[in-house]
Design a protein that fits this description.
The chain has about 450 residues and is mainly α. It is about 65% helix and about 5% strand.
Length: about 450
């Protein structure tokens, strides 16, 4: 009812029979609209930063998309009614280890072989990659948000592979690559990370997303094969074995036949370059990577030497190449030479940021396996608390295994696939913690009737 004396059309909330005002529906819709805006910005920035699809469009590769979308994402995050509660994700083990990794980067700068270069790399990392990780972690406050990010990663990575199949990008020396960010090895890493999550989507409740998952699984497989990356091939083998172990008893015979046919069909259709490069793994001693001073094996040995000489600080963030240049100048007296990358995530982090860096880096991923076991233990004797959450954890763990194996041969420790996995792992750990923490009672002051109130929280 309208209070006496109120002008016609005034915006007063209607009253219930008990006299309490009811909040208008329009006001309740404000948080929903704010959440929708956040999701739209979040999914867009994830798709473009992970899939790099805009780089396939002429003239769009140089657009400052990150400089526009990241601030928009944080503005949308600030508009959320539960903004302060979202910072609880920073209490996870992964988030603390991310802080340790950044601290190791900072510590390495004063002792860097090239201080201004390390400082520039740190600034770029904090402004771009680290901001993206924090945005994704804070924005995934619910399982629906996390599923949305995972689906977006699958759709973007799978679309990259499907675009390559359709003829987008370039083929250089028999190896496909797309855009300016990803070379063939990077593309293979994207495919390795995406494939287990695409398989997870095959059990989605929505038929549309199941079809998207199937198409993106084909695209991810094609990305690895068409790139002809040996590290990608080893990563693919690792995730195929891991998926066989995890899903063998859960998948019907028809599903096993379809999966095997898809894999065999993809291998038969792989280009000759793929088989030629993979064939070199049969006789490692015939490959320059094991015989040359500039091959991977020699690089890794020197990288361990750089770490041994500076175990606490490393040679400086992004300065493995500078260390290589100094070695070549001293050992060969060369003035023109190649400043080689570490060609391994482990050597890259260890040599550049020291022991604290490698501890922080491992801490981004290894706790995920504990989180999956915790969720499974919570469900002992009954169905998991959420089949999709449990399934996503298994897929995330397999993606991490593939990343570890493929990344052993790639200097991609801070690449979009690596950091997106870290962001998803943070959010997953937070949501598992909310699911598995025992409820506790919090005492409140007595109410008007004199009785003590209790609120159950997690």
């Amino acid at each position: 009812m309208i209070p006496p004396g109120a002008p016609s059309g005034s915006l007063h909330a209607p009253e219930t029979p008990g006299g309490q005002a009811v909040r208008p529906a329009a006001r309740r819709a404000v948080p929903r609209r704010a959440g929708a805006v956040l999701q739209m910005v979040l999914f867009t920035v994830v798709a473009l930063s992970f899939g790099r699809l805009h780089e396939l469009i002429p003239g769009a590769a140089t657009l400052p998309i990150g400089k526009i979308l990241l601030p928009l994402g944080f503005l949308a995050l600030l508009s959320q009614p539960n903004f302060a509660r979202r910072f609880r994700v920073l209490r996870t083990k992964q988030a603390r280890m991310f802080g340790l990794l950044i601290a190791a980067m900072v510590v390495s700068i004063p002792f860097s072989l090239y201080r201004s270069g390390s400082l520039e790399d740190l600034t770029d990392f904090l402004r771009g990659t680290a901001s993206l990780v924090i945005l994704v972690a804070l924005a995934c406050a619910s399982e629906a948000d996390l599923y949305g990010v995972a689906r977006t990663m699958v759709a973007a990575g799978g679309a990259l592979g499907l675009a390559v199949i359709a003829g987008a990008g370039e083929v250089i020396q028999g190896r496909a690559e797309a855009g300016t960010t990803y070379d063939p090895n990077d593309m293979a890493l994207v495919g390795v990370v995406v494939l287990p999550m695409a398989i997870w989507m095959l059990r989605d409740k929505s038929r549309l997303w199941r079809w998207v998952g199937a198409a993106c699984a084909v695209g991810a497989l094609a990305t690895v094969l068409l790139s002809a990356s040996r590290g990608g091939a080893l990563g693919l083998a690792a995730i195929v074995i891991a998926m066989a172990v995890q899903y063998w008893k859960r998948v019907s015979m028809a599903g096993k036949v379809v999966a095997a046919a898809t894999l065999v069909g993809g291998l038969l259709a792989a280009p000759q370059t793929f088989w030629k490069r993979v064939g070199t793994l049969e006789d490692p001693n015939a490959d320059y990577n094991t015989t040359s001073d500039l091959g991977r094996l020699a690089l890794w040995k020197r990288g361990l030497g750089y770490f041994a000489s500076r175990p606490l600080t490393g040679v400086g963030l992004g300065q493995f190449g500078a260390a290589e240049g100094a070695w070549l100048e001293q050992s060969r007296g060369a003035t023109v030479f190649k400043w080689s990358a570490a060609h391994s995530i482990w050597i890259q982090v260890l040599a550049e940021t020291g022991i604290l860096g490698i501890i922080g880096f491992l801490g981004l991923y290894l706790p995920t396996f504990r989180d999956v076991r915790r969720l499974r233990a919570r469900a002992t004797g009954r169905a998991p608390p959420d089949e999709s959450l449990h399934g996503l954890g298994i897929a995330l763990g397999i993606s991490i295994i593939g990343f570890f194996v493929a990344g052993t041969f790639l200097a991609d420790a801070y690449s979009p696939p690596a950091m997106m996995l870290a962001a998803v792992a943070m959010s997953y750990s937070y949501l598992v913690r909310q699911r598995t923490l025992p409820a506790r009672a919090v005492r409140r002051p007595p109410n008007a009737s004199g009785f003590t109130q209790r609120k159950v929280v997690r």
